[in-house]
């Protein structure tokens, strides 16, 4: 580095499009940490940081954690030494307020480099998510269509019971899609207007999407 530039990649796409999977693959390849709000929240809650305690006070009331709290958590995370070359963002920013705050945050380092949109048909997204099954014993993840266990309902590794997480139930998935279209989809236009949006076909195999993402980040560097 040294020129003050950092590589910030913002992954966009409906729930189920594979952002998390791709973020983990890219993390390894690009040597940039993947940053997901889920991880950041868990860290702050577990370590009872000032922001974690603040976030919990909202969650305990069943309220949404305000953007400013989430934004400060991300800011703290990006100040860690492992983020010195940039980061791959998965699930943040998730609305325009967060996107604008993020722009301000990363402006001194050259701004957001590229915002890949992994596009996927809604019905396919629903099928991908609702088909997931998780082992109660070891946490292994299966899919009823794409990666079934040998014996239905039982883990191949330990025979543990496979269940569907609440987050993956059809009604929850519909709601997650609704929230996505209402809050996050406006970011597509936002990054398009900045000429850093690139759309990829998320229906392709994971490996193909991954290769295109790597090429995209390389090209933008
Ligand atoms: Zn298991």
Highlighted features:
alpha/beta; binds zinc ion; globular; about 220 residues; 3-stranded antiparallel beta sheet; Rossmann fold
Radius of gyration: 18 Å
- The fold-level CATH name is Rossmann fold
> Largest sheet, if any?
5 strands, parallel
Helix content: 40-55%
Question: What does the model show?
Answer:
It is a single chain. The chain has one domain: P-loop containing nucleotide triphosphate hydrolases (Rossmann fold). 47% of the residues lie in helices and 16% in strands. The chain is built from 9 helices and 8 strands. Strands 2-3-1-4-8 form a 5-stranded parallel β-sheet, with helices on both faces. Strands 6-5-7 form a 3-stranded antiparallel β-sheet. α1 packs across α9, α2 crosses α3 and α4 runs parallel beside α5. The protein is globular. The model has no long low-confidence stretch (mean pLDDT 95). It binds zinc ion. Zinc ion binds next to loops.
Topology, element by element:
Elements: E1 7-11, H1 19-30, E2 34-36, H2 37-46, H3 50-60, H4 67-78, E3 86-90, H5 96-106, E4 112-119, H6 122-130, E5 132-135, E6 141-143, E7 162-163, H7 170-184, H8 186-193, E8 197-201, H9 206-220
The structure holds zinc ion (ZN).
Zinc ion binds at residues 135, 137-138, 140, 155, 157-158, 160.
């Amino acid at each position: 580095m040294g020129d003050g530039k950092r590589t910030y990649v913002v992954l966009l796409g409906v729930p189920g499009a594979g952002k998390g999977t791709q973020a983990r693959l890219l993390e390894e390849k690009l040597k940039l940490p993947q940053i997901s709000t889920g991880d950041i929240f868990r860290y702050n809650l577990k370590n009872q940081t000032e922001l974690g305690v603040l976030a919990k006070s909202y969650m305990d009331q069943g309220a949404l954690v305000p953007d400013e709290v989430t934004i400060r958590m991300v800011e703290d995370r990006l100040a860690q030494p492992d983020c010195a070359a940039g980061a791959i963002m998965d699930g943040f920013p998730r609305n325009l307020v967060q996107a604008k705050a993020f722009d301000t945050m990363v402006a001194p380092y050259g701004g957001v480099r590229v915002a890949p949109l992994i596009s996927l048909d809604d019905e396919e997204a629903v099928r991908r998510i609702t088909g997931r099954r998780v082992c109660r014993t070891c946490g292994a993840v299966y899919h009823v269509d794409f990666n079934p266990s040998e014996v239905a309902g039982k883990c191949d590794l330990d025979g543990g019971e496979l269940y569907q997480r609440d987050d993956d139930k059809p009604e929850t998935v519909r709601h997650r899609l609704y929230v996505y279209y209402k809050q996050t989809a406006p970011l597509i236009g936002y990054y398009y207007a900045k000429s850093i949006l690139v759309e990829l076909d998320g229906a392709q195999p994971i490996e193909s999407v991954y290769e295109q993402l790597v090429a995209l980040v390389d090209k933008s560097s």
